[in-house]
Amino acid sequence: MTPTDNSSLIAFICYTAVVLALAVISNYAFKKRSFLSEYFLGSRGLGVIALALTFGATSASAGSFAGFPSLIYAHGWSLALWIASYMIFPICSMGILGKRLSVISQRTGAITVPDILRERFESRTLALLSTSLMAILLCVYLVPQFTLAALIMQQLLGSSPIYQELAIQLQTVLPELIPQTANPEYVFGLLLFALLVVVYTTFGGFRAVVWTDILQGFVMVIGVLLMLIFAIIQVGGLPNASSAMSSMQPPRLGTASFNLDMPAPPNGIRIDSETWFMLGDDLYRTNEAVHILEGTQESASVKVTQIMTPFEIDRITADGVAELPATAVIHELTPYARGDGQSGTYMKPPGPSPSDPNGFLPLGLAVSFFAFWALAGTGQPSNMVRLMAFTGTRTLRRAIASLVTYFLMIYFPLVIIFCCARLLAPGLDHTPDRIMPVMAYILSEGAGVPWLAGILIAAPFAAAMSTVDSFILMISSSVVRDVYQQSIHPCASQRSLKWISYGTTLLIGLIATFGALYPPQFLQYIIVFTGGGLAVAFLAPVALGIYWPRFNKSGAIMSMGLGIIVYALLYLIGFIILNDITPVRPLGLDPLIWGFLASLIGGWIGTYLTGSNSEEVLEKFFGKPLPTQDIS
């Protein structure tokens, strides 16, 4: 589905202009303040709305608006069980860590999570270790965010002849940097997004990130609620959607090439992605654009999906399917491991699965994921940083209530919207991460307001951007503060720190951009892996460090190390040894659960095998509160 006019593009450009304007205003805001505190924490001045929306917008990343919708689209209603505990994670994160982190960060002057660990355990080594681990995992986490944004840009601009020509020219000019197997329109969209987000993050700092998070938080919830209304209307109501889904069978996934009887004419032949075509009585849909280059007779293999449900085939072909300018040749088709030929699998757990005969979400795994999101969300360093930047306990209490409501208004509607997407946009199962922008166009055009697609697309774009800017800034702050200032040049001037921060932010953006040149099929798997890894590495050391006086440096190192080793090993066995996309789950429990338990055990063993902390540290972290500190 592509735009039929420029109205959605104009709306999207206006949104982007507002984001850049906020960065410019923010840059002026911190010129007369301490650079590090303002650039990386906004001078610790977050109020209720700012705290709730920057916390929520950062948490609601590409996983919420690309990976999560793609899994709903692929597996159906079982995703409601999968995401359920995300509604309570703000209570866990803000309630358990918020007050203590705020007090301690002000006492110690800490700006980053490694800052807290260095002050608590009097260990520069631990701070460097945590910085390195955070930087690696967050750089990996950024790849899905960049991928989603590039897919949105491709969907928004892909029908423009100028955009198509520039994309092809870019790949011709930079063949060494851009893989020839990559879709040039995707690559061009990726570079446009990277330029936008890196420029405004570098220029505006934490305050720009918070201001844009507030804007993006409103855009996200408004976009989701509008999509919910349009989706329910266009499928004829939830009862009708449920009845249709109960009759659906999972599709079959395969590849195809397209041939000509004679060489292609000048400029070649292009068949758009999402094009329907028939081979005999079988119905297929392309999931990638087809290019037959000038002077050639055959395209490269592209992904196609075969529709298997009889009523879907009848409905789609009722008005006829257009003839293709080339002949399709199907190379292979793969049935689902669970659900192939079965009706109703989208309506009940464990849901259909292309690779797992047990389905997507067996009961034990559903229980495991209820613990997963509460732990993973609480253990994210990006959330901890925001808990170091609010104004007082009253702000924290109100933000918790606001954020729980905010997540309810996003995640449950998303389940409904993208179950409806199986009826409104069938046949995208090979590239399900594109379902969000595709649905934005389908719903806005179906509602007779095509310009609204630009606003609806801004919701997932905002989710990716709000996560990217926060994570880039957090990596940059840890590198500048914990590596450069603390270990290399303690007497660095404000000017030097500013330019080192700018350069680091730019470098991180470049790394994530190159990583996104090879996008995975399911973004959510990367997000789950890296999000879980961050929680395993940081939740136990930080929580034990701020609440347990006996906890010491050896305990923190063993906690972090043993947790990550166990967590990574379970993924390694699944990914490499068993050649499976999913990790090994002993007793049906996710690796995060085992990693977190190992982290707690490692922390306990390391603590009691070595000595206690210094009196100075105990006084600083567990003594009387500062007279001016609001902890009421």
Low-pLDDT regions: 35-43, 625-632
Q: What is the top-level CATH class of the largest domain?
A: Mainly Alpha
Question: What's the CATH topology label of the largest domain?
Answer: Sodium/glucose cotransporter
Number of helices: 22
Describe this structure in words.
This protein has 632 residues and is mostly helical. It folds into two domains: 7-24 and 43-240 and 351-622, Sodium/glucose cotransporter; 251-334. It has helices at residues 7-29, 35-41, 48-59, 62-75, 79-83, 89-108, 113-121, 124-157, 161-173, 184-234, 238-246, 310-317, 363-378, 381-386, 393-424, 435-446, 452-488, 494-515, 523-547, 553-577, 591-609, 615-622, and strands at 252-259, 269-271, 276-279, 282-286, 290-292, 302-307, 327-334. The strands form two sheets. Strands 3-4-6-1-7 form a five-stranded antiparallel β-sheet. The chain has a two-stranded antiparallel ribbon with strand order 2-5. β3 and β4 (282-286) form a beta hairpin. α7 packs parallel to α19 (523-547) and α11 (238-246) packs across α15. The protein starts with 6 loop residues before the first helix and ends in a 10-residue tail after the last helix. Residues 35-43 and 625-632 have low confidence and may be disordered.
Which key phrases capture this entry?
Sodium/glucose cotransporter, two-stranded antiparallel sheet, 2 domains, 22 helices, disordered C terminus, 632 residues, mainly alpha, 5-stranded antiparallel sheet
